[in-house]
């Protein structure tokens, strides 16, 4: 390939594809061949770069990189006319300040290849330095590899934050002949999507990580347990594994060494609890995914009773670079007690939704108002941020300067979790959010232990009565007491952490609970039973947005007049409330 | 409706003797028939020498499996955190009202099934739904109405809906 070729990278993550990335790529190809420029331009389909700016298109050449955002199939002709034909960037769609801000301040290790290489082409991965770690590991003993990973300070990125090297050591030292290496790609935390992007954008990095882990613990068989909800990730993993086998990176005697290793994909069938190690193993074995008490830990007695190591996707994606660049390089990134970087999934009421990778120790504020770009709607104030999915907690503005490391986050009552961050503003009801999470864990509880099965259900009932305006102040004491006993007594991680959202919202957003209970009001105008569906004339600016949003014509409005809601026609769908920037509907 | 059980036998053949094959086997059966028919369960139980109740235990544990025929188009409404904050519940309520079915049900004409998904992993484009394999993001009630109408029109033209 000539260096003079300009590569046109088209972002083909799930969001890109849904916005027409396939068509954009096709149109570029047509423009290139139509203009006879095939020797100068080449279209490359890359994974998701992390920012939802459909569709992102980059022109990469020796002279640098030019990025377009929000490219639609019908815009391609205009870009081609200017950029392909005359070499002049098409100004209207050039990526703006937000795009730059999003990527500045990130340290991309796990995501380094996402959006840069073609995930379906192993050569691209190898050219980017992929599979270089293999020569290094085969020249060392498994013990030396374990020491290197221990020294790097890498902790499991799936939630618990256990030292990866130590986990390996337990498994390595366990007796029992056959051993297994399992990759947990059952990314069930609602609000987290980093594993999906890594699997879709850089599947080889996960495979390479599994080979390293397999060698260290002494396993010849690996499993990737991936959610069935991620069909594209499964497809790309299968392609990547076939290519790796062809190149001799998987299979018998990898790269001429004495080590043999291969991987099987197991598709999950939709159960959140299967993210828990022992439940995941039960599911691979073909049973109901129910956890069992530990010990024995999977490192001693795991899959089919054999010693097993389970690592999360993001953890594995770090490994090849730790081996190549060394433990000292990795441990120098991040902060005391939490080495390296962490990928966060920003979602909710924030301007730049997407994946951000920052060094540990960055504060939540730096993350949300730096790469995150601040609030989605400048009229509405920041209220809270939910960390760690249904097992985590909601933090208020006063805790925004908390550094992101395992210890500091745990002190707040939340958990690092897998790194989901859902931002909430004045129009998010914290009581409703807490109810939502309990509802989620009630639905996902496997039903094995009583505290989780019955206790969470009781908590949900109380939360429901509060949001319906039937709550009493004593309910809060009941929730606190029941919540803490569920935390102490449930069998697995799901139950142990499930009360966190309720407990943290009571701790940090008590006034909202009290408004629901005492005044029978939902300050964020979310809880339908507490909304009157009336326009507050003091706040209404007569803009007519609600009038246009109403799907059933229940709103009367004329220019320069207050809007009025016809309650007989209103279906309480809340379309009007969602578009009103002034919170003028109560 | 008569079910072609030879396909179940073919699938069984493929997984014969493999460890931990029950879930992939059932996924395959569902992909073939659109759901897991009771008749297929009986054959699988016999072939694998396990009780049917063990298989039903697995089938009812995982949300992916369905024991009754589903609609031609499957609408999954994401109920993840980001979607919830961005109004995913309102989307589900709207669809439920428009189609006249609750989540987990299928319309009488067999065109649409409505399902809730724990998280579709596209939180950046919340609220999200999928219709079959197609993703629709950044939805509002108006937008979802348009998408639904498009599918309804197609079904009408194909003579599937009345």
Distance between the termini of chain A: 63 Å
Number of helices of chain A: 24
Number of domains of chain B: 2
Amino-to-carboxy terminus distance of chain B: 21 Å
Mean pLDDT of chain B: 90
Instruction: Please give the CATH class of the largest domain in chain A.
Output: Alpha Beta
CATH topology of the largest domain in chain A: Rossmann fold
Low-confidence stretches of chain A: none
Oligomer: heterodimer
**Count of all domains of chain A:** 5
Report the strand count of chain B.
Answer: 4
CATH superfamily of the largest domain in chain A: NADH-ubiquinone oxidoreductase 51kDa subunit
Could you explain how this protein is built, in words?
The complex is a heterodimer of chains A (586) and B (162). In chain A, 39% of the residues lie in helices and 14% in strands. Chain A is globular, with a radius of gyration of 26 Å. Chain A starts with 5 loop residues before the first strand and ends in a 7-residue tail after the last helix. By secondary structure, chain B is of the alpha+beta class. Chain B has two domains: 6-61; 73-157, Glutaredoxin (3-Layer(aba) Sandwich), CATH 3.40.30.10. Helix content of chain B is 48%, strand content 11%. Chain B is built from seven helices and four strands, in the order H-H-H-H-E-H-H-E-E-E-H. In chain B, strands 2-1-3-4 form a four-stranded mixed sheet, with helices on one face. In chain B, a hairpin with a 2-residue loop joins strand 3 and strand 4. In chain B, helix 1 (6-15) runs antiparallel to helix 2 and helix 3 packs across helix 4. The radius of gyration of chain B is 18 Å and the shape is globular.
Give a short summary of the structure.
Chain A is of the alpha/beta class and 586 residues long.
Question: What brief labels describe this structure?
Answer:
heterodimer, A: 586 residues, alpha/beta, Glutaredoxin, Rossmann fold, Ubiquitin-like (UB roll), 5 domains, five-stranded mixed beta sheet, four-stranded mixed beta sheet, 24 helices, B: 162 residues, alpha+beta, 2 domains, 7 helices, globular
